[in-house]
Specification:
124 residues; alpha/beta; two-stranded parallel sheet; 5 helices
Length: 124
Amino acid sequence: MFVFSAARYLAELGVFNPNILDICKAAMASGSQDRDFIRLDRAIFKDCPDDSIDYAVMEKTSSATMVPLKAGWSDVGSWSALWEIREQDEHGNVCEGDVIARNTSGCFLQSNHKPLATLEWTIW
C-alpha cells in the first residue's frame, strides 16, 4: 500500500508523530541483539501508541501521491473477513490443516499442530 524509504518515513513520523519516533528510538537504543534479531526494550516500547501508519503519517503528509489500483484489496481485519477471502467448501467452511467438520457450516477452521474436529450440535 505504501512505498517510501525508511529515512523518508522516519522524517515524516518526526514531523507528524514525534512521540512514536522518540519511543521507538529509545526502545532500539536500550534493546539488545540476539543472533540475527534485534530485541527492543519491552518496558520502553510498551508505551508506544498503537497508531497505524495511515493515521500516524499518511493522512497528514503533503508529500504523498496516490496511484489508483484495482487489486481486490481487503484489509482482512477480522476472522469473518479472512473467511470471506478464502475458498469455502460446499458447506461454507474454510478448512485448513488437519480438520474434520461434521454437520458444520459457515466456519473458519484452522489447525496448525493437532487434529481439529467439529460437530454442529442442536439442542431440542
